[in-house]
Design brief:
With 452 residues, the protein is an all-alpha fold. The protein has one domain: Amino acid/polyamine transporter I. α4 runs antiparallel to α10 and α6 packs antiparallel against α13. The longest helix is centred in the first third of the chain and has 43 residues. The two termini are 21 Å apart.
């Protein structure tokens, strides 16, 4: 699309259709590869001290998200609007269902952004120890910089996302190569560590898979930008598929070389096993090398969340579930009011540390949201059989049904692990009902055109 036309669209309140396949892959990688891969290997090795099972669980995690990606790719291309899962839930279940998923999804992005900014500050303290006493201020400044850049326009956010995703993928590949070269040198030393108990139970397996599922979360991110993609029917399914495949390959490679170089005991006994390997590469500079790579990784992940969250608010506003200013778009193709609110809440969470409470609740809410989105897929298949679907889910209905069964199983397991969180989730969803009634009455007084 010519730049003049794109600018004219923005001035009229439209998002810019300037994104392509590479951005979709970059935002998928940027969202998935975050702080989880830096810390999860140690926790998983402690819970499941068996190399074959660990690698098998990472493969299973990739299959799990691929099943969901198959379903969501159809939804994202059939209803190519900005906002992600909220859009499909609202179309299938109306205001209540849309709100239950939409505001939860927004809070998940905001909480993740806050947590990642704090992680950035923590990693910076490894290089600059004096900063350890001002992590909240550093986290706030990082957020202001990322939000400020993205608020200027879509092109600026795209550039930051694509560059940081490329950098962190290259850093992980370089780490794997270095670890393979040093495998023989490191492993004998790891054998001297105390062994890990060989008992593996369901509790350990479930805990490990929760960490792995969390590390893969973010695969859905290209769908939030389907309206801004030049060819969503082709780019979105490919971006989701390639993003999952590349991330799975990197995760398996990283875990493989960590286990090969340090052994199960070495990985389990090190909170950050990456540093044990890097110390053999850079000696005393290992901490600096790790911190720099970690900051790039979490900054890229934070930027992806920053870009997606305001688009959820924009989608809610389009359906009159939020005030009209949230659907305004500036000349750069960004929703400024959505960015402002998201920035205020994210900075508040980062400086107070209260995002930890939100995370505990959102884990349960997101598990339910993933389940409901697949249900929405089946509802729309039945209700709107003639809806144009540039990409149709593979092996319908077998693979989508398998994705639904997997999500039901995980949701039950999460509920069992966090019953208090489930109670809070039910209360929050019930609160959506009166809000939806108010929004419906407002829409009768000020009707808006239906969007396809």
């Amino acid at each position: 699309m010519p730049a003049a036309i794109a600018t004219e669209q923005a001035s009229q309140g439209h998002l810019l259709r300037i994104l392509g396949l590479w951005f979709g892959i970059a935002v998928a990688l940027g969202s998935m590869i975050g702080a989880g891969i830096l810390r999860a290997p140690s926790l998983i090795a402690h819970d499941v001290p068996d190399v074959r099972i660990i690698l098998g669980l990472w493969v299973l995690g990739a299959i799990y998200v691929a099943l969901q990606g198959n379903v969501l790719s159809e939804l994202a291309t059939a209803v190519p609007r900005a906002g992600g899962p909220y859009v499909y839930m609202h179309r299938a279940f109306g205001d209540v269902g849309g709100l239950a998923v939409g505001w939860t999804d927004w809070m998940a992005h905001v909480s993740a952004t806050a947590a990642l900014s704090v992680s950035f500050a923590d990693f910076l303290a490894l290089i600059w120890p004096a900063e350890a006493h001002a992590t909240s201020a550093t986290a706030a400044m990082v957020l202001m910089a990322i939000f400020g850049l993205n608020a200027i326009g879509l092109r600026e956010g795209r550039a930051l996302q694509e560059s940081t995703s490329l950098l962190k993928a290259a850093a992980l590949i370089a780490f794997c190569i270095a670890a393979v070269v040093l495998a023989v040198r490191l492993h004998p030393a790891a054998r001297a560590l105390p062994p890990i108990a060989p008992l593996i139970g369901w509790t350990g397996l479930i805990a490990a898979f929760q960490l792995i599922a969390g590390a893969y979360s973010g695969w859905i991110e290209p769908a939030y930008f389907s309206e801004e993609n030049e060819d969503p029917g082709r780019s979105i399914p490919r971006a989701i598929g390639i993003g999952i495949l590349v991330t799975a390959a990197l995760y398996l490679s990283v875990n493989g070389v960590l286990l090969a170089t340090l052994g199960i005991a070495g990985v389990a006994h090190s909170a950050l096993p990456f540093t044990a390997v890097l110390s053999q590469v850079g000696g005393s500079a290992a901490g600096i090398l790790f911190a720099v790579c970690a900051m790039v990784i979490v900054a890229s992940c934070a930027n992806a969340s920053v870009m997606a969250a305001p688009r959820i608010l924009l989608a809610l506003s389009r359906d009159h579930l939020l005030p009209a200013p949230f659907r305004t778009v500036n000349k750069g193709g960004s929703p400024p009011v959505g960015f402002l609110l998201t920035a205020i809440v994210a900075i508040a969470l980062a400086t107070t540390g209260s995002f930890g409470i939100a995370f505990g609740l959102i884990a349960t809410l997101n598990a339910a949201a993933g389940l409901l989105v697949i249900v929405a897929y089946f509802v729309l298949r039945r209700r709107e059989p003639d809806l144009a679907r540039p990409f149709r889910a593979l092996a319908h209905p077998v693979l989508p049904a398998l994705a639904l069964a997997a999500n039901i199983l995980l949701f039950v397991l999460f509920l069992n692990a966090d019953r208090l969180g489930a109670l809070y989730a039910v209360i929050m969803w019930l609160l959506c009902i009166p809000f939806a009634i108010v929004a419906r009455r407002a829409r009768r007084n000020s009707p808006i055109p239906q969007q396809t």
